[in-house]
Amino acid sequence: MKPFAYHQPDQIPDAARLLTSIEDSKLVAGGMTLIPTLKQRLASPVALVDLSKLGSLKGITDDGATITIGAMTPHAVVAASKLVQTKTPGLAALASMIGDPAVRSRGTIGGSVANNDPAADYPAGVLGLGATIVTSMREIAADKFFLGLFETALQPGEIITAIRFPVPLKAGYAKFKAPASRYALVGVFVAKFADGVRVAVTGAGPGVFRVPPMEAALSSNFDPSAIAAIKIDTDGLTSDIHAEADYRAHLVTVMAKRAVDAALS
């Protein structure tokens, strides 16, 4: 690991200024992705900007129609939150499935969403619930935030401060995880709202995506049987040492049915 400067600002504007003024600097939240990357010498930033002192970025609030989760809130806190468990149990369940206890204690929702790993869990919850990503500059709808493999709509110096989730009528998450990493080979989040259903898939391709045929079928009949016969096209799906594209396509339907079951229960 190469030497780097280390900054720990206690105000969001200071963090943004450091990020834009120091070329090739990186934000660090929980460090669950960045630290291993540094150890493997896959990244060599000249400076790290640590967000851990930004207490305003932690916590969960409720205004009735939405739940807002601060970007620096750890996965374990989301999983254990009585508010999230009551209002959006599918999101609490998703957080409880991330990694292992150490990862859930250190990893943060903002870091996961900003990194946009193609096999991460939170992007499915964010897109599936139609959440809004609140940043230091603006608000971004989930449908416009995730652009591709490790790519988001964030601009240089832009920092996620919170994520605002609409409260669904029902929601559930199911994933088939890789045994070692616990990342999703395929994970599916299903959310039912008064105006329809959203289905978001992670792990199956280079980024999280929605499945309109399943959304239409579940909007008419919110039951696993409604999507049992829907086949997912393998075009664009990932084939790697863990699973071929056709197996991942099969898993999307299986996990979607289980997600609906979880939402109904």
UniProtKB/TrEMBL annotation:
Entry superkingdom: Bacteria
UniProt-listed Gene3D superfamilies: 3.30.465.10, CO dehydrogenase flavoprotein, C-terminal domain, Uridine Diphospho-n-acetylenolpyruvylglucosamine Reductase, domain 2
One GO MF term: FAD binding
SMART domains: CO_deh_flav_C
InterPro entries, per database record: CO_DH_flav_C, CO_DH_flav_C_dom_sf, Diverse_Substr_Oxidored, FAD-bd_PCMH, FAD-bd_PCMH-like_sf, FAD-bd_PCMH_sub1, FAD-bd_PCMH_sub2, Mopterin_DH_FAD-bd
Keywords: FAD, Flavoprotein, Oxidoreductase
Domain FAD-binding PCMH-type: 1-170
Keyword Oxidoreductase: yes
PANTHER family referenced in this protein's UniProt entry, alphabetically: XANTHINE DEHYDROGENASE SUBUNIT C-RELATED
Name by which UniProt lists this protein: Xanthine dehydrogenase family protein subunit M
Source species: Bradyrhizobium frederickii
